[in-house]
Write a structure and sequence with these properties.
By secondary structure, the chain is an alpha/beta fold. It contains 3 helices and 14 strands.
Length: about 200
């Protein structure tokens, strides 16, 4: 069974700690440079290679994309991982840089989450977990905030415990940010029903 796919995106270079836990690693365009810098040989390269012009390892297969396309390189990688049956996707080097790319990366993970794939975006300064009919447990992270926001129009049955401002069976919408900047009072337990919930830990 295919389990964890890690995708190195082309945003700002970031911490790749834990990426070796992945069963399969994809590097997207400039993400290949970040992989090489970390001594990582990906299992697949994806992109139109408009932002990486260096040499490529001929042993690594390439999913070449046209420059003019609907999918971003990261979206194409996420779509490929979903089609291959991976049960979890972790996205790296997807923070910083352009805001539109960050939002696009989150929406790409939303595509995976909507299809039952566990999805997260991991970085040095922020971690984002996407939940749909799922739960996550997060120990206290000193120096980080804890927020929950709706990615879809509405997220039902949101429950948050182990925090200063708990919620029980709440409806969270994407036009009212009720879940910003909570505080740990122990281990946070967060769950939700239908809809996609973003659980965000951001460095203060």
């Amino acid at each position: 069974m295919k389990k964890l796919c890690a995708i190195i995106s082309g945003g700002e270079p970031d911490d790749l700690t834990g990426i070796h836990e992945a069963d399969f690693i994809i590097a997207c365009d400039r993400g290949y440079a970040y992989a090489k810098q970390a001594g990582i040989r990906p299992d697949l390269l994806v992109g139109d290679f408009d932002s990486y012009k260096g040499k490529r390892d001929k042993r690594v297969p390439v999913l070449d994309l046209p420059v003019e396309k609907d999918d971003t390189d990261t979206m194409a990688a996420v779509r490929w991982a979903v089609s291959e049956g991976f049960s979890e996707i972790r996205l790296y080097c997807a923070l910083g840089g352009r805001l539109d790319h960050l939002m696009g990366n989150i929406q790409a993970l939303g595509f995976a989450c909507e299809r039952g794939v566990k999805a997260s975006l991991l970085g040095r300064d922020a971690r984002i977990f996407l939940l749909k009919n799922d739960a996550v447990t997060i120990p206290p992270l000193p120096g980080y905030s804890l927020s929950v926001l709706a990615l879809t129009d509405r997220v039902e049955h949101v429950c948050i415990s182990g925090v200063k401002y708990p919620l029980q069976d709440a409806l969270v919408t994407n036009t009212f940010p009720v879940g910003v900047s909570n505080e740990w009072e122990g281990t946070a337990n967060i769950s939700c029903g239908n809809g996609i919930l973003l659980v965000i830990n951001a460095k203060k």
